[in-house]
Amino acid sequence: MISHWHADHTDGLLSFLDRRSQEVGVKTIVDVHPNRPTARGIAPPPSGKVICQLPRGPSFEEIEAHGGTVEKHRDGHAVAGGTVWVSGEIPRVTPFETGLIGGVRFTPNEDGDGGSWSEEPVSFGAGSKSLTGFMNGPGYYG
After folding, report:
1. Which of 105, 87, 97 is nearest to 122 (CA)?
2. Which domain, by its residues, includes 64?
3. How many domains does the chain have?
4. Would you state the pLDDT for residue 131?
């Protein structure tokens, strides 16, 4: 399960999938929130000018190409044969969960030609916080 699209949650995913495919020879289900950003960056106030782009996570297509089977879920649901509950999106409601000041998200145009950056102060973590982990074999979750 990928709880949200930050590099520290997704950086090793493609390597993990490659190794698992080679060693076990099976596709691995990768449970994700469907709201994957194309890109994220930082545009600090007051200028609002994007000064850097944050590392991007793998695309759904890359996950599939490396031996993953993408399952997109916005709401809570059971996994692992009904033994683990994934909460789905949890709204940020406390003062310390306001997101990154100057956090922005790139949204491509529908025709794929260009796009725009928009402020994303509250949901910098894709608006979701939930359990992240891998199923490491029958009966073991960790």
Report:
1. 97
2. 7-119
3. 1
4. 39
